[in-house]
Amino acid sequence: MPGTAPQDQERAGSYRVLIVDDNRDAANTLAALAKLWGYEAQTAYDGRTGLEKARTFRPDCLVLDIGLPGIDGYTLAHRVRQHPTLHGAKLIALSAFSSEEHHQRIREAGFDYHLVKPADPAQLEGILKMLEHAVKLMERTESLAQQNVSLAQETKELLSEVKADIQGVKEELREVKEELREVKEEIDHAD
Q1: What's this model's pTM, rounded to 2 decimal places?
Q2: What is the per-residue pLDDT for 103?
Q3: Pairing between strand 61-65 and 90-95?
């Protein structure tokens, strides 16, 4: 769902959020809030673990701290964007950095949104709701497109049947016309 989201047809369930922050309390609090909002949420406390969890959990959205130990948030975002099953996940940068240089680096790393710490929970909830709604709309659109393809195929098959029926009727009409012509000739010769 490249430019699609990482959902699979076989994977049903709630919108998945992975929070990666080395501040365990902050990560756990955001995960608890996400769960209260109805999302499936997991946490990681460093970039390497975050990437490993992302590969197995396959989140729809990752909330990434920038100043992570090991792999920083920029690098993690870049790796997520390069991963075949994760590249469509939405990325939210969560950082105390707010300078224009960091905004530029955040955009270049492929983040979709940037929240400055301490993040307003209502703002994060609003972004997650919007992203979840967009995924649902995309899934519904794909479903409708598949239905349209099926209906188009059925219509094509029905048109072929109708054409065959019309051809049969035309043939029968030719036969009837021929019989009528023969009858008329017989009547004309009988006179």
Answers
A1: 0.69
A2: 86
A3: parallel
